[in-house]
Amino acid sequence: MTYSVLAHCPRTGRIGLGTATFSLGTGGRAAAIRSGAGVAKTQANPQPDNDLLALRLMAQGHRPARVLEMVAAQDGYWSWRQMGLVDTEGRAAAHTGQDAKHFAGHLAQPGIVVLGNVVAGPKVLEAMVAGFHAAPSAPLAFRILAALEAGRDAGGQSRDGAWIPERSAVLRIASAQPWLELDLAVDRQSGAVEELRRVLQARMASSDVGAPMRQAKQS
Q1: DSSP state of 216
Q2: pTM of whole model > 0.85?
Q3: Residue 218 lies in a domain
Q4: pLDDT at 218 (0 to 100)
């Protein structure tokens, strides 16, 4: 019961990841992002080794579609997983295994991947993509957050028609530096996506992070 967005900004070269879920501690599970490589996210039975392998392969120059094939070849539980990849050129690929909990699916376009499992249908994924593209000149962090908010507002997590609240959320951004430019996580919050926006706004207002990101008026 998780929905995620992976994205790349062609103007600034930034890459980012946003995730919202009912499960606690999502920031510490199966997601990897690295400048010079890309961003990888495994969910629906996450496997951190898959994400680390994917980053190594993308850093070596393999395209995301090929990386998925290489990861799948060494994973005996591939049909139970979802995985999304976006590299530093904006190339994207995704996988949803046939055994992932319903509804599970993904959308992959140049510069963006959205993934969801135990969500309220394809409308959640479609809304996330639309939310991401709604303000193309906004900073990437806010575009990713807008995608999460749109997914939530389209029904978010749902089982047997019943809404499931987001209790944990994470937002990460990397640029050219070998460290994360932004790394935010919210836990044990009944409205984790709302709290993530509050934390992001506070963080962007600080001079060390907000200024360089605002100056470029980037995504």
Answers
A1: T
A2: yes
A3: no
A4: 46
